[in-house]
Write the structure tokens for this entry.
Amino acid sequence: MRDAGKAVEQIRAPDFSGKLGRARWTICAMLFAATTINYVDRQVISILEPTLQHAIGLTVVEYGYIIGGFQAAYAIGVVFAGAIIDRLGTRLGYCLFMGIWALSAMGHSLASSALEFGMARFSLGLGESGNFPAAIKSVAEWFPQKERSLATGIFNSGAAVGAVLAPVMVPWVALHYSWRAAFLITGTFSALWIVWWFRHYRRPGEYSRLSAGELSYIQSSQMDLGPETGVKIPWSRLLEYRQTWAFTLGKFLTDPIWWFFLFWLPSYFSRHFHLDLAHLGLPLIIIYTTSTIGSIGGGWLPAPFRKMGMSAPKARLTAMLVCACAVVPIFTAGFLQSEWIAIGLISLATAAHQGWSANLFTTSSDMFPKSDVASVVGIGTCAGSIGGILLSVGTGWIIRITHTYVILFVLASSAYLLALLIITLLAPGLKKVEVPA
């Protein structure tokens, strides 16, 4: 049977050297743009928080509730987002969630109280929850297995690009126009993206500008994903698979670390190194720029392991091990006296997280049929958001009690190795699920 499988693979995977088009990378570019906009919208609130204190009387406690509300809405929305996108398809499903997201982002400009602002933020969380389930499903549709982690790493790097663009763009708009204009403009970017996506996105078999060679290449390694219109696994039954729990627990343990890097690093540099607002920008730009390199590099990392003779699952897990080990040195960040050493270690950790994330996302399409990828990603991302809420609340209490970040960086340094251990125990070799007949 194994020899027969190899023979079929050879027939379905001919040499495409020099015959490929670039349509799939255009799709990847659209996913990258969406993720960049996602993180710009997400960062606006943290940048404008001091301004909002004076503009609408927003207190620190209210700000904390708004952050928690956003994460709660994201956790709730992402579960339903996966199922909705699996049912509607990526073209319509992505447009639906981006539409909610765009209206909510622009709706912040109309807020005049903490309650109204919180409602807009909650709605934004619901809209943004559709981004990653739709993007991962798009990658599963448009890329062969060996390119999926690279494509995921490229579009996922938009998270870091958005985190860099926000502190560059938002203050300028707020200072030259108003804080309301900052929310309005970022929401407009989302609306423009919807037009771009709806006009140009189709599945590979329906894309008129896709060459026959590229279509064959995309489909060459998709025989392992199950039929395009095969039996869809009910959401309730997905929880019965060990593979679902492997992905979900991996997200639960490691997604909160990225939330920590995103929302608490300015506080860390301010409290630990006494950096004021005028000097916070450069460390954050360095860190998030490095994380962009990590996202793309981490997505590429399984390729050399494949060339060394490893199977695709083993290469994926080895790349995740490398990323997990690269985060470990961050446990010293709570003790450091040099801000530049701290910047270097945190940059390495954020880059490693993004590389880990690109490969972790791709394990969902490694283990599940295309028809269920968005649902699985939704469940896992929901768990990651719940973990983010718990860590956000816990972070405030830890800092209040200990006045240091030591415990937090120790937790961050160990989360990835623990997650990888759980993944390998629950889904050894990233074994594919057996689709019910």
